[in-house]
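Record pair follows.
FIRST:
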Amino acid sequence: MADFGNEPGLWAARAAGASAGAAVSLIYLLPQSRREAAGRFFTGLTCGLIFGAPTGAWLIDRMQLAGQMSPFETLLAGSAAASLGAWWALGILARIAGRYGARPER
């Protein structure tokens, strides 16, 4: 497993990947409001920063690319994938809750 230290460059890769994942997600599943967009963006950013390293390591292992990618590239890809996944999960849950979670009118 790659060594992901606390170097500023690696944190920049995490932040760039998480932001890119959230931005790309806008294209595929548009938010219905600004509030939903902000909530999903910050959730994606947070998940990308937190889960970027394990997701990147898992992707590299799964794709059999160990030794071919630098820690920077691994964190960038992992953060983008984690952010993209969080964005989609939160967006789908918000749509389901909006559709089926409404209170019945009396």
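SECOND:
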Amino acid sequence: MSTAINYTTAAEAVKLIMSGDHIYIQGSTSVPEVLSDALAERGSELRDVTIYCGFSVARREAPYCRPEYKDSFLVNSFFVSNNVRRWIAEGYGSMTPRFLGEVPALFRDGTWPIDVAVLNCSLPDEDGYVSFGVSGDVATSASQCARTVIAQINPQMPYSYGDARIHVSKIAAAVAVDDPLVEVPTATPTDADIRIGNAIAERIPDGATLQIGVGGIPNAVLRALDGHKHLGLHTEALTDGVLPLIRSGVIDNSQKKVLPGKTVASLALGSRGLYDYMDGNPDLEFKDVAWTNDPFIIAQNPKVVSINSCLEIDLTGQVCADSIGSRIYSGVGGQHDFVYGSSRSEGGLSFLAMQASTSKGVSKIKPMLTPGAGVVTTRFQTQFVATEYGCVELRGRDLAERARLMISVAAPEAREELERAAAERFGYSFLRLKA
């Protein structure tokens, strides 16, 4: 295969996109901004271009999300990210509900036709392969299924091993850029986060395989694990928070059954230091999200521990993690996949964590979910729930017992109202638990 790259300008590259095409634009912290801008410049001459997009942390709103382009670019997102959130909220774009691990199947079985994949890639290696770097997730399947691949070739993109690669001979048009990736600051845990993190960490056994999310609570959990031994990592998102544990040997991946000795992820969100750590690191494997998030692959590892955040939980353990009432705020991501995968793992545990109240003092533990809220994890799957007031296990508990446990980790000022709601809903089966 030829290792020559067909370089051109961004304006020329996006001429390969035609009216009526279905295109995928890469996400994570690697949105191809130069190509996105060039595509938006063609807005007046294109019609009915469907743009598939997913989880992204972008510098700004997508340039094609403008009222004058409402018939040019039809945004269909499977995760509502910051660059398209307003556009979708205003009704111009749309969102397709789908577990992130199942999105690649939409491309592969033809449910979603895909004509063009627009990527942000590393410099090529000596064999002519470029890497998607921080974003193996859906970019892998999109690039495999698209008839045309357009790519930014970017020295700022780390070279990661695994599925997140493509040979330059399969790139129809490439644009040389030197465009820094978005950096996601490490969230500093609050006192409440630290209490939650400590409560979760003390329940994690040595030798566990971790899936851990992003934010203050996950970072608090990671900080509390420095005394553990032989932890593994098989996760959707890789963050800066794991680096101290990898460097100290706490995470050594020695007890994993799936890719032992390797840290496994599908995407990365973090600092330049994290991206530099990833670059050419053979101890890391970045995989197709259909593989990392497959519950049956996850479950092959022993002692899988999944730790995910949520927006609100009702008294029975129904978890909302994607919407604020009827407004879709984000997406499902891998929460369901890892909750289910951990439940099938020998010795597996799953934690749903949140602060008990919003910044305005509104309880996140509800008698019932807010009307319109989406159920991401059902009451049948919820195991541990953690707030700054404790960590309770719902598994094996009836509805009245669950209500009592959920009230015990609610904010104190919300408990009286929750008690009344539980008594009205569950009657004597709840009231007798007060004794």
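COMMENT: The radius of gyration is 22 Å.
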